[in-house]
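Entry type: protein chain
Record version: 2
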Amino acid sequence: MLQVGSTAPVFELPDASMEMIRLSSFRGKKNVVLYFYPKDGTPVCTREAIDFSDHEDHFSECDTVVMGVSRDDCMVHEEFCDKHGISVRLLSDMDCVVSRKYEVYREHKTEHKAPVINEHLHSSVQRCTFVIDKKGVVRHVLPDMNPREHVAEVLKIIRQIHGH
């Protein structure tokens, strides 16, 4: 996983409306909260996206943009946003290129009780949030946050960075 103090890897990904979003476009202008999550529509992921959206104005007051990244495609993101009133940008990383850059992509073998001729590899994206400052430096890494406290904790960090 990326370490605090490292430069955030740049990327370009489409959002729910298929607009290409470049991390580099925020450098010098905005802090970025970049959260990786497994899948749209699951209870924890839904809660997280709604909570970030509900606090989007507070993040904006601190010159911060919030973006979620998952393997879901743009159409799934759009439906998810429409269904739940999600206003933060959700980015599609279907090939896990960005998830690999941020070192949150995991592959693991399927465990079988009986001997198996062909083992299967399964992949997943680890739930993790990166707080990136205006200079493009990773200031905080928050893996596996408690979903009930996640947004409040990230907002507290952003307010400290912003000087509130």
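Comment: The domain at 12-162 is CATH 3.40.30.10 (Glutaredoxin).
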